[in-house]
Design a protein that fits this description.
Elements lengths: L1 E4 L3 H12 L5 E4 L3 H11 L11 E4 L10 E4 L14 H18 L4 E4 L4 H12 L6 E3 L2 H15 L7 E2 L2 E3 L7 E3 L4 E2 L2 E2 L6 H12 L1 H5 L8 H15 L4 E10 L5 E12 L2 E5 L6 H19 L6
Parallel strand pairs: 1-2, 1-4, 2-3, 4-5, 5-6
Antiparallel strand pairs: 7-10, 8-9, 10-11, 12-13, 13-14
Bound molecules: NADP nicotinamide-adenine-dinucleotide phosphate.
């Protein structure tokens, strides 16, 4: 069973993708029960007729029992200016959810989508004490797609002409787009752009969400698809290489924070943290990003 805690804009699209592709049974849990029920009786009609699976909505956490995967896409309210705006409230929310998951489905693989992503992944792991490779924050793969999109627009080439795009670090203002490995039609990107252009593209990737919000209230489809891809890899035993957030214990020279780094995922969750070559400047920015996340973690006011 795939359980989704938080049946809002993103949770509902993740549920729709899982249901319409007939992946597994789905449980939607939401603070306001009627929303979970409403989404489930709408999404149920997208399940293929040949499927043996179903979808249900509830506010009862005991129904988590038997979950193979739990996605957390709940949010106490939506931030306006920065992803850490509701930091304390979100951390306290995720600690409560961690307790419930530990109680009802301690063997589940947990995918965290809620913001601030890196801080919540860290606190979920700390509270639940689940294996760190089974607690995965999904966001850097979305940032990577945004970066890829900007490069495609700037160089007027299809997405398929660009390879090795990656964004690492915080899902926030210190995220680090990695330019040094990118090839465009097999030519190194760094031979085509100067520092000023690197800064402009970096800024555009960081501010993508602000630009999007000029046109619609907030993003949902990109992150839902990135999360679906991980669920699909777990359920169907596929190997997936993406940047995602896990708690680090010295990998990349960083420990006691969770942040986006390249990982390999299969049916068991993360099975390898990859080390790729990046240049000195990018490495320094990545350390800076980890320090920013650590400062955010330290600033949290824990309740209870
Ligand atoms: N990782 C990424 O790259 C990425 C990208 C975009 C957004 N996000 C984040 O994803 C999260 C969800 O965004 P959204 O647009 O889907 O938000 P949303 O539409 O406001 O949905 C959030 C849902 O969470 C529910 N909720 C709140 N507390 C809960 C709890 N303790 N238990 C169960 N459900 C609870 C709310 O219930 P009610 O019906 O009672 O309000 C609401 O339905 C946000 O934190 C957002 O910042 C992440």
């Amino acid at each position: 069973m795939i359980s989704i805690v938080g049946a809002g804009k993103i949770g509902a699209v993740i549920a729709f993708l899982c249901a319409s592709n007939g992946l597994d049974d789905i449980l939607l849990i939401n603070r306001t029960k009627t929303k979970a029920i409403g989404e489930s009786i709408d999404i149920v009609n997208s399940i293929p007729d040949t499927s043996q699976f179903s979808i249900h909505g509830t506010d009862d956490y005991s129904k988590l029992s038997g979950s193979k995967i739990v996605v957390i896409s709940s949010s106490v309210s939506i931030y306006l200016k920065t992803r850490v705006e509701n930091l304390d409230l979100q951390v306290n929310m995720i600690r409560d959810i961690a307790k419930k998951i530990k109680q009802y489905c301690p063997s589940a693989i947990v995918l965290i989508v809620s913001n601030p992503l890196d801080v919540l992944t860290y606190f979920f792991h700390k509270e639940s004490q689940l294996n760190r490779f089974k607690v995965i924050g999904i966001a850097s793969s979305l940032d990577t797609s945004r970066f890829h999109h900007f490069l495609s627009e700037k160089f007027n080439v299809p997405l398929s002409s660009i390879s090795n795009t990656m964004v690492l670090g915080e899902h926030g203002d210190t995220m680090v787009p990695i330019f040094s490995n990118i090839l465009i039609n097999n030519t190194p990107l760094l031979s085509k752009i100067n520092e000023h252009e690197i800064d402009l593209i970096t800024k555009s990737v960081k501010n993508y969400w602000k630009e999007l919000r000029k046109y619609k209230s907030r993003s949902q489809f990109g992150i839902a698809k990135k999360t679906y891809d991980v669920i699909d890899a777990i359920i169907n035993s596929k190997e997936l290489e993406i940047p995602a957030a896990v708690v680090l214990k010295g990998e990349w020279g960083i420990k006691d924070v969770s942040m986006g780094i390249p990982v390999k995922i299969n049916s068991e969750g993360v099975f390898e943290i990859q080390k790729i070559n990046i240049n000195e400047k990018e490495l320094a920015l990545l350390k800076k990003s980890s320090n920013q996340i650590r400062n955010n973690i330290k600033s949290v006011q824990i309740q209870g």
